[in-house]
UniProtKB/TrEMBL annotation:
SUPFAM superfamilies: Ankyrin repeat. The lineage of its organism: Eukaryota, Fungi, Fungi incertae sedis, Chytridiomycota, Chytridiomycota incertae sedis. It comes from the Eukaryota. This is Uncharacterized protein.
Length: 563
């Protein structure tokens, strides 16, 4: 049978003291507090199942029904399970109820979950449910939880759970609970202390206490888990100041800081970089500052994707911040190439005109780039045509770019790259005699590749150079490629007009271009070819002579040919 009683709020605060764990007692006592802080307890019988007990679903429903005002009115829900084992399905119901939005501000719900461990055979671990259900409501209740766990679960597991609690509560910022846990369980390994410190970095007070009470290393070099690194990752300036302050007190501040600088550079954290620079200038020697600045600058230029235009303004500020602090003064001119990001092909795409401008304005000598070591302009032929042009204007020799690399770069990998890649290619072709003489890509010169891209403007730009029109482009009357080119010219009169301007023969192919254009009724193409002197086929020539229509003879010609 269920029974009920009322207590005042003061008595309710001491509910946990009434908890007694017995082996055979077969009921569940649930305490509820309504908005008036009147506590009511309900005891429900449980069913013996195997080695444990199970609360019938109907009893569980009845427990909820008997809650004063219903769960929606309850400000606190405390379940004190006075049995040794609770069937794990009951816990599912408990957590399910919690997930429906019922608030457990003094969450002894966790207490019920802790009994699951044995019966669930590890399927529902107590620390997993603890982390899932919410924050701890007070140290008194937590004391009971830990006592029960220690009594029912072998000690190492209880300690493991306690360590988990410490980490969770550090992240939640529950100072009182954390102090209780830390004071009771100080036997944490260095790695565990470091994990707790990382979890706590958002809470300045807790972080300081952990460093003092646990002896946490603010720079966990032993296991390479660095709280300061995570503080930088999350752009937490206050945590960085606190951790660096602790590190300063313990000495050896500057040796590891450049490692963190790399991440600040990669994430383009302008304010964070400025703060780190202040720390370095004040507390480390010039060698440490040199390493910090060069590391941060290197990371910023190498790792920040050039196509991330949404953060381009932040990147410019960050670059100017570092350069303004004198980053380039510590860079040997022969190593300038490394700080321009030109250290290998995979990094080339991150170099852009902004980097070149800012660095060259502040003394970087881009002429010091060694183009002989490899084809340094390779990556710039992609999306960074402006940077490629700037390098050429500064003295880089485009003849060192291998022609086959140039030809590959002419083919855009996506529509977004189309214009910039072609502009880059055209500029390089104009300045590279090797490219003009190269006959790769199926024996055709670069102009053939540009022609295949079907853009009359770019084709004209290319042909307005020393590049000769390759006769083989249109005179090879065999093969699928030739037919495709003929079809393209028939459909695109503007492209055809550019080629004719630069010496392409108007009478070409079998059937000829004009025959194809007439058959396809491409009137613009017929007009261009006739204007350039293309000879009409005999049949069409006769038709033209007989035609009396003067307004649009070409249209009439196409119509008659179609018939």
């Amino acid at each position: 049978m269920a029974s009920s009683e009322s207590l005042n709020a003061k008595q309710g605060q001491n509910l946990t003291e009434e908890l007694r764990v017995t082996a055979d007692q077969g009921f569940v006592k649930a305490w509820f507090a309504d908005r008036k802080q009147t506590f009511t307890s309900i005891e429900l019988p449980v069913k013996l199942v195997g080695a444990g007990f199970e609360l019938e679903s109907s009893d569980w429903d009845r427990l909820l029904e008997r809650t004063p005002g219903g769960l929606a009115e309850a400000t606190q829900l405390i379940l004190l399970i006075q049995i040794r084992y609770l069937w794990w399905k009951t816990a599912v119901k408990i957590s399910s109820t919690y997930r429906q939005g019922y608030r457990a501000s003094c969450p002894a719900i966790e207490l019920a979950a802790h009994y699951i461990y044995h019966k669930s055979n590890g399927q529902l671990k107590c620390w997993e449910i603890y982390g899932y259900l919410g924050g701890v409501g007070g140290t008194a209740l937590l004391q009971v939880v830990l006592n029960i766990i220690q009594r029912l679960i072998i000690y190492p597991n209880a300690l493991h759970f306690t360590r988990y609690c410490i980490e969770v509560e550090a992240e939640r910022g529950h100072a009182e609970v954390l102090d209780f846990l830390v004071n009771r369980f100080l036997s944490l390994s260095n790695e565990e202390k470091e994990r707790v410190l990382i979890a706590a970095f958002n809470h300045k007070y807790i972080m300081r206490n952990l460093i003092d009470d646990l002896g946490c290393n603010p720079w966990a070099t032993e296991s390479e888990i660095w709280p300061i690194y995570y503080a930088v990752c999350r752009n937490n300036l206050e945590a960085v100041d606190e951790l660096l302050g602790c590190r300063k007190e313990k000495g050896n501040l500057g040796t590891a800081l450049p490692h963190v600088a790399r991440h600040a550079g990669e994430k383009v954290q302008v304010e964070m970089m400025g703060r780190l620079v202040e720390w370095m200038k004040e507390h480390v020697n010039s060698a440490g500052l040199e390493q910090f600045l060069s590391t941060c600058l290197d990371a910023l230029i190498r790792k920040f994707a050039a196509d991330n235009l949404s953060r381009l303004g932040e990147r410019e500020k960050a670059l100017r911040c570092l350069v303004g602090e004198g980053a380039l003064r510590f860079v040997d001119e022969s190593q300038t190439v490394a700080y321009l990001g030109i250290t290998g092909r995979k990094n080339m795409r991150f170099l852009d005109i902004l980097s070149l401008d800012i660095l060259s304005e502040n003394g970087a000598d881009i002429n010091a780039i060694d183009f002989n070591s490899f084809t340094a302009l390779f990556g710039l032929l992609g999306t960074q045509w402006a940077a490629a042009r700037r390098l050429i204007e500064a003295g880089a020799d485009p003849r060192l770019v291998k022609p086959h690399i140039l030809l590959h770069s002419l083919i855009p990998s996506s529509p977004d790259e189309y214009g910039s890649r072609l502009l880059s290619a055209i500029y390089m072709i104009r300045n590279c005699p090797q490219c003009l003489q190269f006959t790769g890509y199926g024996g055709l010169k670069p102009v053939a590749v540009i022609f295949d891209l079907n853009d009359p403007i770019l084709l004209r730009e290319t042909l307005q150079t020393r590049i000769e029109f390759p006769p083989k482009l249109l005179t090879d009357h065999e093969g699928k490629a030739f037919d495709e080119r003929m079809s393209r010219l028939v459909r695109n009169s503007e492209l055809l007009n550019v080629l004719l301007e630069f010496g392409a023969p108007p009478d070409i192919g079998t059937p000829s271009l004009i025959e194809r254009a007439i058959a396809g009724k491409h009137e613009d193409t017929v007009a261009v070819l006739v204007a350039r002197g293309a000879r009409l086929p005999n049949k069409q020539e006769e038709i033209m002579e007989r035609m009396e229509v003067e307004e649009d003879p070409l249209a009439e010609l196409c119509r008659i040919s179609g018939e």
